[in-house]
Amino acid sequence: MTTQPLKPAEYLKAAREIEAVHGDTARTLAVISTFTAELLRPYLIVESHQLDCLVRPWFGPFGQLEQLVLDEASALWQQSPDVLWIAARLEDVDPRLVHDHPHIGPEATRQRLDAVAQRLVNLARAARDKHRASILVSNLTCSAAHQLNPFDANDPDGFVHLLAETNRQLARDLSTIPDANVFDYAATVASAGADEWSDPKLWYMARSGCSSDNMIPLARAVARATAAQLRPAAKCIVLDLDNTLWGGVLGDDGPEGIKLGDDYPGNVFKDFQAALLGLRHRGFLLAIASKNDEQTVLDMLDTHPEMLLARDQFAHIAANWDPKPVNLRRIAEALNIGLDSLVFVDDNPVERAAVRAELPMVHVVELPPDPLRYLAALRDVPLFDRPRDLQEDRQRADMYQNEAQRRQVEQQATSVEDFLRSLQMEAEVGECDSTTLERIHQLIQKTNQFNLTTRRHNLEDVRRFAAADDARVAWLRLRDRYGDLGLVCVGIIEKLDERAWVVDTLLMSCRVMGRQVEDAFLSYLAGEARDAGAQTLCGVFRRTPKNTPVKDFYQTKGFKPVGGEEEQRFEAELTNDAFPWPDVICRVSKSTKESVGA
User: Fold this and answer.
1) Mean pLDDT over residues 165-174, rounded?
2) pTM of the model
């Protein structure tokens, strides 16, 4: 969503208008804090709306952290929040510590800092035990009122270093709590400027945590962190070339005439490419949509000595003279991802407008006219935010490159059976443990096409299923001769009655559709239910706008329909020979089940 920035005085009116029109779509953000946070309300509403992820803020009375979290009947849990922000400031919790540090020394200072961090971790753990909400916990920083010695950083045991150690340990401890993450309050304060962050009069009179001017950057940062908890990140960055990845027009200036190198202005574009390469290392796919001659583009990618992005780092290249919306559709189809997973980057405002008009679901980056601001525009894209980059995320770009090799082999194969055997697939199956919990949760949140029920269980739900005796949370990891495709299938089954178990969730990455992987995984799930004593396996199909490809899944696997309208239900007998494992996939089992508790 692209809007004009508002002045602080305009936020209240805008928030009222947004709530009046869109209030019923808002998700609940609960805020418990050591300062008065209610003044952030209109800013949070407007900033979250501009991210297309509207929140309804609820604020607990300041200073009542434990009272609100520990009491199951408290007003906090009555809100049934989607996200909980625990916002504690060091100057509120231990207001004298900075001043005491020179006297008490580093060890005593460290102990008091650790006590503050442990309080926050304990709150997060208690909140996780009470509710399914995603959790954000502010890290710690020094306020301008607690000015440090300008040479404090010169001391290895200075307060600034002790505080950094505490924040690192806070991050480590929160990483052990499902769906609990650090909100980088310290970076938000530093970015806006610590000296002017708070207004002493507002603090002493109203216990407000920041000045009126800084409520905008704080609300913007919180809204962005909240949105990252509630929606999946983008999958692919589609790039223009001329005056985007390099300066100049390749067709007119030739490779030797474009601006790209270590001197200005070429170094500006080279740094932009470096940032894009960094996003690829995090697992975001790169693709090209350029009005150019294809061979000219390929030669440029293959031979120009200053290019940081080579041909094989792009998952798809569409270099032709077709309209950009046409090529974006082709790219999404070729990569088998939704158009809403694309981020479009183009210096030409006309091209950007055409994409916005024809493909409103695509996120279009508003590149500024000055390439010096390209990096800032890239940093401002909220769809690149992920609370954690998992191993499967970092490997995703390479996985798609390997997919091109698979497609080439498929085209040359004389039959589907020969193609599948040539892949030399190996599938490892097992139950959810602490190493797979977050990846399972990630797939549940973002998988759309091959998803029989599209139930968006949060991380705490998954953990509860995994710990239950009458349920199983299962996964399948696939590799073949071209590489490791990672954890691609997730299934949740639970006991329905003494005779039957039901498939609550069955999903698979669309990358492996049509390879009998779904047959292998169904065989594993059926075996788990059979081993638990089930005689019947029940399947459920809940139709969504995106899962049409699997509407006939259960019928094609031998299940019989048994009724249902909004939820179609199916049954199959679990005889010993039901749902055999396909012989084109070699099975590797993992039987150990580790604890997935916090």
Assistant:
1) 97
2) 0.78
